[in-house]
């Protein structure tokens, strides 16, 4: 059975061995911009007519300049603008990076215009329509190749996703494109290219004749063609690294003809199609950088012997006892490390202490960065989930038994896994950490969740994700526990009669730590809550309100409650926390709901005038300066869909107000918390999507809804009862909402 390795694992290993951070680490804004750049590229070259940039250029033909202009405008309005707006809170401190990103996007549109015109010129193929040209592109293509070496005990299946494959017009050859935002690291690039070359040789038609192009947008474009001749210098060492990472390399012997990697037949390089801008050479040459020849020269001049990848190859290819910065793939985690670890890997945290980050079904996962609001809480106080039966022997035996059932089920389906210790016990789910068995792929496992759930007798399909190079399997806890609201109170702090508190409790993570959203922070200023009927939305809204009431007085907090179902907030009808007499809106209360929102907008403007008079720009500074409380106003809306589904005109007015408040109200101390049963495109797109990046995802009806809300599937496999995925920055984190019992509610919500 071949051992699977992905290109990104190998790339990260090279980075680590070179003593650098793994690719993909780094500032979240930088990562986000890189990801956006790839998404925009995929949209422009894809087949969706509403997003395609190819269509825009072809539609404008024969006016090439008009095509370029329209493409730029389309790219901004349809693809870049909405993404920037959506991520505005994260990006607002990084104006310079955003400008560089935009410049790179402009260069990308020029490159695409050139390429489309080259294709249009290829009259021999009779390419006329945008669809025909778009068919030349394959975006995010998954490539797989099984590699064998004489000194390997098993084969290695290498998997990678190339940014784009372009069939060169007039030939049947292919050019593999790797896209980079930012300056390249020439030798690291070379190593990556070598990996793709290995891959492409097994997959792409005519690959022997094909070229691999690196497009660096830094932000100007440098196109680099890399040929097999160059790749050949690093390929043997790369193969040695692959063998070592996969654990198939046999101990090194004195080199002999038999153990040397097979020499590769040198393929001819195919340049990128010559463009009208004449950036690419007409004739294939070993390596060409059209825009930035200096970069090429640098690559060729620098001695690979002292380069980053070279060092990595050298150390990685040595016997495990001498190098190996990371355990080989088949060494059990936790087994004795090699004697010498020149660049030790970061210590693995106790899984129980990690924030849960779930991107099921193939997505990569990482713990989301805590917001500034949560950080001190995490370390100082924590609301611990009831220890309950988690530590009782009977319960732990049941969990162990469940773990064994899972192991058997995986084995029966031909995808063996090894559990790594006992599960972490959350209030409603158990999280097992596991290692893939030899030759098993993640996709194989992810495809089998239903069967494995059934076989192991688990009511809901397990949620399986990747985390730090191993598997996370989350299953419903057989003895689910409720997190009582009272247990989180210490984490919410005491009442501050002047400033109050802007912390909204969200839920408790697997380690029992409360996560909160700080409404005063730009990232969490407004919240969108969604979940199917019975998932726990209304209870969540009540719990969030109770959390705010606990830490505020009516001088520091006021509520505006919109209750289309007439059921969510009735206990608060006479609460002193209501903002005005229109503070609780229900259908038939004598006004349209948009009037309530109008009142909030008017209050926002009034506050900004107050602030201006005091020479301050937000609520906190105003309070500090005047030493007088001014209540934060939080508008909770249950069932938003019911409000907007009645009348088109009212919907328009509501959306306009939400747009305004979402964009401007935070600094004035006015916030929106909006819940909907249907996180569908029809409901979310527009005002909500643009201004509410912070999301609470309870169980949804489908993976599509989950994706719409959280950008990833997974919420459809939650268990209900306040089991949720919370997303502010980074990947969603799985949390359990505390439960406010009717008695506590009556006590906290009573009119005083
Ligand atoms: N955090 C929680 N802990 C335990 N049980 C909960 C929790 N939240 C909700 N529940 C249970 O789930 C039931 C449904 O919750 P809720 O009424 O909030 O759902 P909903 O999503 O608002 O449904 P609908 O949209 O149909 O009103 C509650 O009656 C309660 O029994």
From TrEMBL:
The yes or no answer to whether the keyword ATP-binding is present is: yes
The FtsK domain is annotated at 511-707
Q: Where is this region: Disordered?
A: 249-396
In this chain, composition skew of type Low complexity spans 356-396
Q: Which SUPFAM superfamilies match?
A: P-loop containing nucleoside triphosphate hydrolases (SSF52540)
Positions of ATP binding:
531-538
This chain belongs to the protein called: FtsK domain-containing protein
Q: Which organism does this sequence originate in?
A: Chondromyces crocatus
Show the taxonomic lineage. Bacteria, Pseudomonadati, Myxococcota, Polyangia, Polyangiales
């Amino acid at each position: 059975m071949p051992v699977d390795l992905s290109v990104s694992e190998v790339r990260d290993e090279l980075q680590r061995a070179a003593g650098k951070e793994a690719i993909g680490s780094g500032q979240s804004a930088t990562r986000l911009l890189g990801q956006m750049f790839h998404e925009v590229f995929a949209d422009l070259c894809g087949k969706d007519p509403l997003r395609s940039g190819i269509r825009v250029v072809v539609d404008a033909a024969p006016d090439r300049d008009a095509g370029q202009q329209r493409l730029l405008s389309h790219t901004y309005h349809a693809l870049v603008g909405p993404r920037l707006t959506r991520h505005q809170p994260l990006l607002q401190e990084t104006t310079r990076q955003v400008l560089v990103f935009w410049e790179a996007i402009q260069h990308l549109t020029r490159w695409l215009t050139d390429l489309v015109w080259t294709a249009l010129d290829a009259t021999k193929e009779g390419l006329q329509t945008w669809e025909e040209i778009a068919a030349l592109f394959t975006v995010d293509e998954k490539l797989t190749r099984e590699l064998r070496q004489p000194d390997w005990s098993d084969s290695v299946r290498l998997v990678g996703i190339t940014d784009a494959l372009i069939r060169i017009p007039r030939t049947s050859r292919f050019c593999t494109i790797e896209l980079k935002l930012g300056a390249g690291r020439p030798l690291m690039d070379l190593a990556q290219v070598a990996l793709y070359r290995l891959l492409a040789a097994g997959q792409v038609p005519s690959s022997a004749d094909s070229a691999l192009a690196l497009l660096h947008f830094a932000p100007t474009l440098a196109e680099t063609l890399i040929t097999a001749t160059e790749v050949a210098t690093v390929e043997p060492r790369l193969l040695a690294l692959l063998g070592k990472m996969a654990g198939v390399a046999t101990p090194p012997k004195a080199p002999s003809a038999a153990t040397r990697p097979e020499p590769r037949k040198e393929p001819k390089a195919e340049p990128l199609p010559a463009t009208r801008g004449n950036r690419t050479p007409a004739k294939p040459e070993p390596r060409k950088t059209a825009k930035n020849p200096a970069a090429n020269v640098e690559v060729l001049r620098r001695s690979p012997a002292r380069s980053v990848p070279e060092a990595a190859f050298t150390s990685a290819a040595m016997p495990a006892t001498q190098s190996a910065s990371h355990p080989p793939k088949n060494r059990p985690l936790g087994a004795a490390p090699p004697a010498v670890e020149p660049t030790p890997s970061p210590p693995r945290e106790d899984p129980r202490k990690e924030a849960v980050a779930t991107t099921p079904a193939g997505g990569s996962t990482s713990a989301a960065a805590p917001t500034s609001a949560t950080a001190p809480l995490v370390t100082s106080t924590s609301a611990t989930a009831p220890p309950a039966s988690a530590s009782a022997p009977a319960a732990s035996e049941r969990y162990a038994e469940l773990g064994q059932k899972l192991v058997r089920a995986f084995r029966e389906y031909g995808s063996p896994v090894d559990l790594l210790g006992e599960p972490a016990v959350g209030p409603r789910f158990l999280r097992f950490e596991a290692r893939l068995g030899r030759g098993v792929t993640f996709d194989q496992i992810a495809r089998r969740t239903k069967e494995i759930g059934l076989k192991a007798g688990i009511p809901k399909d397990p949620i399986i994700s990747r985390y730090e190079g191993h598997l996370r399997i989350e299953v419903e806890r057989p003895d689910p526990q409720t997190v009582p609201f009272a247990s989180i109170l210490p984490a919410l702090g005491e009442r501050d009669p002047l400033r109050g508190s802007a912390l909204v409790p969200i839920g408790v993570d697997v380690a029992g730590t409360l996560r909160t959203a700080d409404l005063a922070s730009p990232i969490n200023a407004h919240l969108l809550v969604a979940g199917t009927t019975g998932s726990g939305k209304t209870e969540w809204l009540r719990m969030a309100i109770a959390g705010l009431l606990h830490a505020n007085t009516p001088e520091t907090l006021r509520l505006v409650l919109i209750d289309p179902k007439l059921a969510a907030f009735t206990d608060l009808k006479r609460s002193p926390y209501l903002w005005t007499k229109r503070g609780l809106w229900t259908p038939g209360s004598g006004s349209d709901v948009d009037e309530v929102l109008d009142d909030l907008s008017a209050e926002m403007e009034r506050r900004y005038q107050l602030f201006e008079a005091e020479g301050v720009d937000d609520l906190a500074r105003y309070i500090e300066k005047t030493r007088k409380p001014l209540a934060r106003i939080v508008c909770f809306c249950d069932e938003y869909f019911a409000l907007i589904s009645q009348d088109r005109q009212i919907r328009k007015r509501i959306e306009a107000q939400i747009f305004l408040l979402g964009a401007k109200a935070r600094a004035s101390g006015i916030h929106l918390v909006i819940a909907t049963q249907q996180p569908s495109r029809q409901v979310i797109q527009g005002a909500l999507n643009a201004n509410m990046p912070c999301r609470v995802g309870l169980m949804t009806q489908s993976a599509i809804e989950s994706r719409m809300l959280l950008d990833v599937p997974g919420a459809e496999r939650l268990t209900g009862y306040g089991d949720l995925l919370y997303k502010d920055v980074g990947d969603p984190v799985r949390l359990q909402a505390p439960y406010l019992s009717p008695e506590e509610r009556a006590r906290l919500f009573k009119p005083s």
